[in-house]
Amino acid sequence: MKTKVPFASRCILLGVAVVAASLTLTWHLVAMQVEDADNRRGMAADELIEVETIPAQRGIIMDRNEEILTNNISGAELLADRNHLRDFSLVVDGLAYNQALNDPRWATAADKAARNKIVRDWVNRLTKNAEVDMTPEERQIARAKIDPKDTKALFMMDYDPAICEQYYHLHDKLVADVLWPFLANVEMRDNDEETAEEPQTPPQPKSKGKGKGKSRQAKNPPPAPPAPKRFMTREDIIEMIAQDKTIAANKEAVARGEAPKRLRMSIKLARGLNIDTAEKIRQALANAHLRGIVVQTTRRRSYVTPTLLSHVIGYVDHENKGVSGVESVFNSYLAGCDGLREYRHNARGQVLSDLNDRYLPPKHGLNLRLTIDMRIQSILEQELDKGMRYYHASRGCMIAVDPKTGDILGMVSRPAFDLNTKEIITPNGKFRRGELKDRAGNVIGGDFNFACQTRYEPGSTFKSITVSAAVDTGVFGINSVVSAAPYVVAGARPITDAPFNYGALSLAGGLKKSSNPVNARVAITCGWKRFKEYLDRFGVTQPTGIPLPSGGSCHVSNGANPVNLSRMAYGYAISVSPLHMAMVYSTIANKGVRMAPRLIDKVITAEGEVYDECPPQTVCRVMKEKTAKELLGALESVTERTGPGGRGTATRAAIPGFRIGGKTGTAKKVGAHRLYTDNLYTVSFAGILPVDDPKLVIMTVIDEPHPTDCNPGGGTVAAPIFRAAALRIIELLNIQPSNAEEYEKFRNEQRSEQAAQAEQPKKPNKHA
Questions:
Q1: What is the mean predicted confidence (pLDDT) over 462-480?
Q2: Helix (H), strand (E), coil (C) string for 173-238
Q3: Alpha-carbon distances of 441 from 201, 208, 216, rounded to whole Å
Q4: Which residues contact 118 (CB under 8 A, 6 or more apart)?
């Protein structure tokens, strides 16, 4: 017999169930409104906050005389946020507003409230059109398949994906229609990714000999015709936002079992826009009630003298980050810190004033004052270009150093590049990147800093180190006589001065006549231990320490092998950089004290206060002052036409009235099969101006010259280039001559020659 539950009991049970359900619902509501209120309020606020970056002013770079070398030009870039452009609510709001504009009721609306009602009607209409008609059971099944924490997916569950995609593409087209009138003249790039505009510094190109009978420099190819420019279209804007091609390719990749590419969520539509255009775009987007497109203020780096000092200054990428030169090395000093400004919006995109809005002002970058004197830099660049054109050289450099402080007063390398356009600069003109090639067919890039990064066998300029080690340790005196006869070491190829036969020479005479056997005998007598000690003291075995890409230390062979040691004595079996050799001769000119190369004179704040003094740094004493003085005397004899030992090897560097010292270097280059060629040379001249009170050391290195009027050598190619630059620097810095009368006579003769040349009638142009 079944027991029936009394009616009263059933009522009590039902009442308890209803109360329990009510208490549970109340508890969840309280938790949402009280316990989780802060989190939800923050989430809602974040969705309505727009942050604008205020770019910091990048620090300026100036020379030692405070001549400004860089500028910051204000501009703007256009960014598309795909997260916002694929937000259903924002897209519907934008479409609804533009549908409302075409609604017949819009023109007759009495006030703003009436127009807002029209917009809301269209929002409701578009939203309802996209809603999916589901039964409660179907909705529950669909909800069970979605992560409860994925609020966006739960929200979009109610809408038809196909209709949503249709809305997105209509919105993309609307955005393109608003933007295109302002971007119609913007050049379209094939790969407009967020990458550096130019390549990083390439590896050093290899030098390859061509064998006998092919010593002439290959002609540069004719400039390629410029590629036709393609300007942005509406379809380009739509594709950049929608990325339909990438989506289609991803579907094919997934079908093949491959990983799909990630879609870009932050899209750079255009950069380099002027401020007026940016403001017009911002206003047009606001008028159309379109969200997801950000007009970002930027600062573009510009260079005042873009063809000068390019390797030292370097350049920045499109994000204003240093890529090369001091722009890269001191990027953290120059960049500063961007500021920001917050804007709060309501659901309609209207800006709301809020006391909690943050404003952080930008912190501008620090300024750099270089040790470079742009007047000297300009002279070096002009004279190097003239010399390289005349001697048909492929690469070269000049470095000017103040020996007393280590200040780099000028540094020029060829090829170089235009800081603004990135075109390759050669003595023969400018070329677009990629169109200039060497004899081996390798593309020549201008980023490689020949003055710091190259490694070459210096030849006879290295002999000063050999003599320094011998004289300073007392193994030889500067006037000690050494045999200059052919010298055979460990059965290797004889070391000779052929075609000359000097018999015997003093160490000073060995420098003056650049005798290989004399220096080889001196090095072998000194031994590897002493020789290596002076390589260390001169800094050859360490990086120079200059704040530029420099390639590290020099390449030194194992001098415990006597053949290697004998070859190093006259500049083979060792590879150095031009800057290393410039600092070697600066040490000799500075009474034997080695200074660190100094490129930064001061770091200065945006307010003009000195942040860092960057004083000159003494590294060590390399040799006794007496040794340095004796070496200077020997180096002076190298430029003399007369005196003990006869004519020096660098008489073309001499300047009447001034005591000029220096050393020539001529080294054969390694070609095919790792053999030295007879037609490719690297020639150099290290000049000291003047010997009695050194103001400057100028290192000149010319790679692969092909003169038509002389044999390629340091004395015939590099020395005349040094002299041409030194004459102009003497006038610029008003350096006083040792013999004023002799110098004035020389200058008068020069003026007379120039006047006579100016009076000569020009030859008629046959092709006129």
A1: 97
A2: HHHHHHHHHHHCCCECCCCCCCCCCCCCCCCCCCCCCCCCCCCCCCCCCCCCCCCCCCECCHHHHH
A3: 19, 10, 15
A4: 100, 103, 105, 106, 109
Given a contact cutoff of 8 angstroms between Cβ atoms, the answer to whether 727 and 376 are in contact is no
Alpha-carbon span 221 to 238, nearest angstrom: 40
DSSP 8-class letter at 461: G
Comparing CA positions, the residue from 173, 101, 95, 149 lying closest to residue 127 is 95
Higher pLDDT, 225 or 721: 721
Please list, in sequence order, all residues whose beta carbon lies within 8 angstroms of the beta carbon of residue 107, skipping any fewer than 6 positions away.
none
Q: Which of 583, 640, 612 is nearest to 407 (CA)?
A: 583
Q: Is 656 exposed, middle or buried (0-12, 13-18, 19+ CB in 10 A)?
A: middle
**Residue 648 · residue 639 · CB < 8 Å:** yes
Q: Is residue 565 over pLDDT 80?
A: yes
CA distance 115 to 687: 82
β-bridge partners, 293: 80
Which of these, 17, 90, 77, lies nearest to 47 by C-alpha position?
A: 90
For helices 112-130 and 161-183, the axis angle rounded to 10 degrees is 130
Q: Rounded mean pLDDT of the chain?
A: 86
Residue written as token pair 């300073």: 472
| H-run or E-run covering 726 | helix 719-733
327: pLDDT strictly greater than 60? yes
Whole-model pTM: value is: 0.78
Query: Quick check: helix, strand or coil at residue 702?
Result: strand
- CA-nearest of 739, 732, 656 to 696 is 732
Separation of CA 300 from chain center = 15
Question: Quick one: tokens of 464?
Answer: 């000063």
- 252 vs 565: CA distance, rounded Å: 65
Q: Find out whether the peptide bond into 761 is cis, omega within 30 degrees of 0.
A: no
Beta bridge partners of 398: 412, 700
Backbone torsion region of residue 389, taken as left when φ is above 0, otherwise alpha when ψ lies between -120 and 50, otherwise beta: alpha
The residue behind tokens 């000092």 is 309
**Structure tokens, 481:** 């006589």
Residues 55, 318 contacting (CB under 8 angstroms) = no
**Residues 480, 518: contact at Cβ < 8 Å?**
no
Alpha-carbon distance of 453 to 445, in angstroms, equals: 13
688: enclosing H helix or E strand: strand 676-689
- The sign of the dihedral angle between the CA atoms of 272, 273, 276, 281 is negative
CA distance 214 to 440: 12
> What distance, in Å, lies between the first and last C-alpha atoms of the chain?
132
CA 224 – CA 550 distance, rounded (Å): 33
**E strand segments, 553-675:** 555-556, 574-575, 593-595, 600-604, 610-612, 618-621, 661-670
Is there a contact between 541 and 490 (Cβ–Cβ < 8 Å)? no
pLDDT at 669: 92
